[in-house]
Sequence to fold (451 residues):
Amino acid sequence: MWSGQFVHLTQSWNNYKCLDANSTTWMDLLKRNGYHTKMLGKLDYTSGSHTVSNRVEAWTRDVQFLLRQEGRPVAQLVGNMSTIRIMEKDWETTDKATQWIRQTAALSKEPFALYLGLNLPHPYKTESLGPTAGGSTFRSSPYWLSKVSSELVSVPKWLPMAAMHPVDYYSTFTKNCSSEFTEREIKSIRTFYYAMCAEADAMLGQVISALREKGLLGNTVLIFTADHGELAMEHRQFYKMSMFEGSSRVPLLIMGPGVKSGLQIHQFVSLVDLYPTVLEIAGISAVGNLSGHSVLPLISKSRNLSENEHPDWVLSEYHGCNANASTYMLRVGDWKYIAYADGIIVPPQLFNVTVDKEELHNVVLRFPDVQAQLDKLLRSIVDYPKVSSVVHLYNKKEFSAWRDSLGRNYTEVIANLRWHVDWQKDILANEKAIDTWLYGSSRKFYGQSDD
Fold:
């Protein structure tokens, strides 16, 4: 989103290895071209952020052990019908944004660009699991739950664990979702997630109200999107790190002068398209090699769809934690094709998303011609076996350097990361598995492939 380039081009392999600090973002270009800019809230697109646990889990994803890295997902009710501000930090950031609109943007003679990054609807940190815990608590109040039509909240179908694709099996286990859940638990988690979305929507509403109050709404372009989705117990998972629709498909809403209102675009677009889109809106020429294409021709009142040269496919790739292989997803027409690692050691998946909306039936063996065609297209976009090899070597190199930097403290530090509960069950076996990964060559994938 920030670079306008695919992950394999920026080599942003995980939440720790992101963009270089000197990377030129679209916000940088706006500032250079006379815009008064302001960035508030979540900004984690440069390297070095996130927890030690997060980076170590990403580096060691090829190690032959299965360790739960997250807390079991739970729903938590807080407050009462008067409790509105649950995510205080996001509300404080939103307050700063609306204050900046009123006190700075409204008085500025320059055009302005404001970025507001929210953490919601991320699950909250599960405090009971200690200081290294991740986010697995879906928290809301009766006020926000009242905004959700709970009778419409469905309980998704799951494949049996033994029928899962090996990477999905690994994701389910490491996300601590392999134990039993009642339908009531699942529906509660999903309902609370929607309530958290409603709270985030209210923050957006506060921004829009500030723009309207200052007479800026009519000449300001607003873009609402997210860097990932949320599975919310679909496919026996929560969180992200997956190419299923709940995780990989995100909202993209655009409103403003020159934009057609009430228009829903069915053509595939990607977060890498935001960079050239913002620049075109601002009348700034793009610099460098961008992977994305402006979506303005699709939504502009003054442009015809026939003028658009937007690709009919989108690419997504992932190389971080909770997935034990580099993952590449190509969406074309009705099809979603997912390739892994070098394309050989881990079987691919193919879904007809129009027919199989829940993505429960991997039909890659039934449609070999479609698989071959999509794999050829994927390889024309990215040499994914080569990229996977680069990531594999990077992971070993970074982990080795991190371990060496700890010296005698290594054993204690690695034992007390987010996976500490499972790690403590067999410390010597887990340490040996890491040594085998670093100095051996055998690999194994957990679970079975379902066609």
Remarks:
- The first helix runs from residue 7 to 10.
- Residues 442-451 have pLDDT under 50 and may be disordered.
